[in-house]
Design brief:
This protein is mainly α and about 375 residues long. About 55% of the residues lie in helices and about 5% in strands. The chain has helices at about 20-35, 40-50, 50-55, 60-65, 70-90, 100-110, 120-130, 135-145, 165-175, 195-200, 240-250, 260-270, 275-280, 295-305, 315-325, 330-340, 345-365; strands spanning about 200-205, 215-220, 225-230, 230-235, 285-290. The protein has a three-stranded mixed β-sheet. Strands 4-5 form a two-stranded parallel sheet. The longest helix has 24 residues, at about 70-90.
Length: about 375
Amino acid sequence: MLSQGCSLGPIHYGEDQYKFGEELKLRLAKKFVEESGKSAEDFCDMIAKKIVQLKECFDEKVIHRYDNVTLAWMLFVDGCATLQFIYCAKKGEFKELNIKNDQVAFGQQDLFLLENQLPYQLLEELMILSTNKELAASIKSFIDSNNMIHGHNEAGENEPPIHLLDLLRTSLLDGSMPSGQDGNNKHESYRNVQELRAAGIRLKPSKTGLLRNVSFSKRCNFFPGYLQLPPIRVDDSTGPKFFNLIAYEMCPDFKNDFGISSYISLLDSLIDHPDDVKELRKAHILHNLLGNDEEVAQLFNEIGTDLVPDQATYANVRKQIQNYYDTKWKTWIAEAIHDHFSSPWTFLAFLAAVTGLGLTAIQTWYTVPWW
């Protein structure tokens, strides 16, 4: 969990580039045991008894070179270190372990690397044995703080998580499906947010913060159109998390509906230029903590490259947008409003002109003799 990188689990265990991180893991694991009310032997014995079950969580190609004793020790150290890191993140106690802020930031990224995932079953067993009953709450707080959705909802009842990355994915999707899974045979001719805006489609933040909460509506079923998207926070950690979540969805043994990939594909279809990011910011949908808008545009274009999303996801929303976009008279209205009423002053000038013409007409009416 350092800027040099930290290995968790059996994939990179013992590799030279992660040796510096091993000392930190031992420090964290020691602190975990001290605060647990149990001994290191208690935890090691528990893991040894469940080692057969825990081995089933890994591919045989990954763990074949480790005997049970080595694997049990590895899982003990890494599991305890992970829980202690998360607990310290909630309590703000990193300084007591001489862990600097930059190490904390990189440590959080390490915990969400796909190759670093530990079985959630291991973390649960360690928490059950420990007398520290705040550990489960600290995991929830940790996931909430790393959730990229601004003001997201409480997650509903879901299947037990496989690991921390799976828990993060669930918190973003909440197991729900987007409404209106119609087929969409139309080719999408719109290319970005700016083109939608020119067609009279406005952006609004969704009321609930889940990636699948995307909808399209029209005021009084007429004009203008509103595309509602979940508010998202973009910072230095957003890219790595999305890359690992997408890699997780692409794992051949993970059956899923590609919820993250589908969302990124949708967002990528809306963002081509920095001006698209600017419009999303102005609508309070995208909170840019990364830097300038060009960096954000490049980020999502990069993440969205070569994705294979679920075509049914957002299909109805995409079709509604395309149908609205293809209605030319709505586009003409939007262009007229944009060209002639883009500011309050132009509208007031137009109103004054209409009022003036009205007064002139009334005056003419009363001055013309009708007999």
